[in-house]
Amino acid sequence: MTDISITRLNASQSDFDSSLAKLLAWEDSVDHQVNESVRHILHQVKTLGDAAVLEFTEKFDRLKAGSVAELEIGQDRLQKALKAIPEDQRVALEQAAQRVRSYHERQNQQSWQYEEEDGTVLGQKVTPLDRAGLYVPGGKAAYPSSVLMNAIPAKVAGVGEVIMVVPTPDGVVNDMVLAAAAIAGVDRVFTLGGAQAVGALAYGTETVPSVDKIVGPGNIFVATAKREVFGTVGIDMIAGPSEILVICDGKTDPDWIAMDLFSQAEHDEQAQSILISPDAKFLDAVEASINKLLPTMERAEIIEASMSSRAAMIEVADLSQAAEVSNRIAPEHLELSVEDPEALCEEIRHAGAIFMGRYTAEALGDYCAGPNHVLPTSGTARFSSPLGVYDFQKRSSLIGFSASGADRMGRVASVLARGEGLTAHARSAEYRIEED
Prior knowledge:
This protein is of the alpha/beta class. The protein has 3 domains: 7-18 and 240-369, Nitrogenase molybdenum iron protein domain (Rossmann fold), CATH 3.40.50; 32-235, 3-Layer(aba) Sandwich (Rossmann fold), CATH 3.40.50; 401-430, no CATH class. The chain contains 17 helices and 15 strands. Helix 3 packs antiparallel against helix 8, helix 4 (75-84) crosses helix 7 (175-184) and helix 8 (194-203) packs parallel to helix 9 (220-229).
């Protein structure tokens, strides 16, 4: 394997801005044919229900069933999977689930209200969604960690029913995924995948109930379907390729940093790994580590493609400039591999998750740290947050005026409504005004 060359940038270059923009550019426009195919599948599922779901499941997953009910996996099968997996896997899943649950319980929002002097009551009622749908990739790409990260916040929020869909191409079921569903408390599981599964969750069929929100990762057909059904249901996000940005002061073992960069590059060829440091010699050392360690990786070809086309090493004047560049990138995962991560964290404004200190590998966050691993990508951390309990709750405003409050505020509303030319609004408020 020949050495790969990583793109080098220097923040002092005159063309740095344009070079950085070019590096970050990612084309997420949906292929026209994919779009047409997804729209057709969704329309069929919406109009034909179970029959369309069965047809597409046979076509795409090579799985023939007499009814959609046959494609549902019962709770006894989930428990059987939990007992069937190796003990070390079961213990690891349970430990991870406990940490994820403990972290998310702290996010739970409570209803609140307050009373004004005249007896008027204002507040907010927080209510969980009735039903959430969880898409879990199947086949070769089976992610039990994704089950925990998506289902547990929903259950902590108090969602009445969590429906999981997972494709099982050729009937191959992943016991670890089913075990994770058992641990997370998933209510119902259907062996469905692709756009047809998203359609079934969004519109409901004779067998699959419709949900209020669909969460979870998937391929381009799943992502496109989620985009299409948004508005009929809520969705978590349209995720782009995975990203990691490491800021290092040059004092961490370069092998550690190289492997941290690999941890995202191995996801797929479009994943992006970036290292920022004020130490040019350290950048050289990490590049040497990358080429030394790459041949030892099982997914070396994917890592090589990702690192060659989308990775970068950026030299900066100091750590403050590193934070400035990081804020422009707004990465999904940000490692602060420095002496004083707390101080540097003060300068960070945009990041999905921030990993503090040399010992905090991003990989821990993917599995068992506790915070959610469903994070905003492609710079959307500028305005988005990690998946959390709050994504499975909605807020209703509470407004209750006393007679004197209605009199006082009715006068204000009357002036504003008449100013907008909305007479019925004004008169509705004026009926509650006491005569002087």
